[in-house]
Design a protein that fits this description.
Elements (H helix, E strand, L loop, with lengths): L1 E2 L2 E2 L8 H4 L18 H4 L6 H11 L4 E4 L4 H9 L5 E2 L15 H12 L10 E12 L2 E3 L5 H11 L3 E11 L4 E12 L4 H11 L13 H6 E5 L2 H5 L3 H11 L4
Parallel strand pairs: 3-4, 3-5
Antiparallel strand pairs: 1-2, 5-6, 5-7, 7-8, 8-9
Helix pairs in contact: 6-7
């Protein structure tokens, strides 16, 4: 399986084979592609339909609520075969300056759950999440405009950064937050490449001003360590594992 000109090694697809996922969804952007299922053909993977049925059976008395307007996260939940509903509430995403690294995304994921807590029913499981890009001890969020998007991508050019996604699972009596960290290395982008990507893909809703599944990921990623899906906005393997663990204790 390849991203741009670089191959994802076994570590890069940690969690994918366990889930049996054989394709990636791509956004409306130039060079739409899907990752080939051949990477898993000989891996002896689990049957995703059987796994989904098992998890849905365990969750049949619970109501999964995804509090995210992200089309990518919503699609991930559909791809996992989970029954869920979407609820949205506005949240001012601000964090204390003393926080660093995964503490920031953990805090924001938990913050997004606060407006829902009083209305949760005993069988509800609320899922909130947040993604940041971490470079040189600084969190990079979503760009406000093309100028800021250019500056962010330029700072990521010819460097390695970390993508951190935290997911918070909340019930009326229980809360658990998990996170995943993925290291991504980009080639040295030309100004023309950066401007082309911003003009065609408009990455204003993405932390770090890019989507790895889009054109810039195809031509720019030279190395990735960790979960690919985490970079897209959700560590799907952790969602699956955590829901399986939660049904044993709630």
């Amino acid at each position: 399986m390849e991203v741009g000109s670089s191959k994802l090694d076994a570590q890069s697809i940690t969690g994918l084979q366990d889930l049996g996922i054989d394709k990636l969804k791509t956004a409306d952007c130039p060079l739409k592609t899907a990752c080939p299922s051949a990477a898993f053909a000989e891996a002896g993977t689990l049957n995703i339909e059987d796994c989904t049925k098992m998890l849905n059976e365990k969750l049949k008395h619970h109501n999964i609520i995804l509090a995210s307007g992200s089309p990518r996260r919503q699609q991930f939940f559909k791809d996992l075969g989970l029954d869920f509903e979407i609820r949205l509430k506005p949240v001012h995403e601000e964090y204390p300056p003393r926080l660093t690294h995964f503490e920031i995304s953990d805090y924001l994921a938990q913050l997004k759950a606060l407006p829902f807590k009083k209305e949760l029913k005993p069988n509800d499981i609320l899922i909130t999440s947040d993604t940041i890009v971490w470079l040189k001890k600084k969190a990079l969020g979503k760009p406000r405009d093309a100028k800021e998007a250019f500056e962010i991508i330029k700072s990521l050019s010819n460097a390695t950064h970390e993508v951190i996604t935290s997911v918070c699972f909340t019930t009326p009596t229980y809360e658990k937050t998990v996170n995943a960290v993925t290291k991504v290395t980009f080639k040295d982008f030309s100004d023309d490449e950066i401007n082309y990507y911003i003009r065609t893909c408009k990455p204003y809703d993405k932390a770090g001003a890019y989507g790895i599944q889009e054109w810039i990921g195809h031509i720019g990623v030279t190395k990735i360590e960790g979960s690919y899906f985490n970079v897209m906005g959700l560590p799907t393997h952790l969602v699956y594992e955590t829901l399986n663990d939660m049904v044993k204790i709630i």
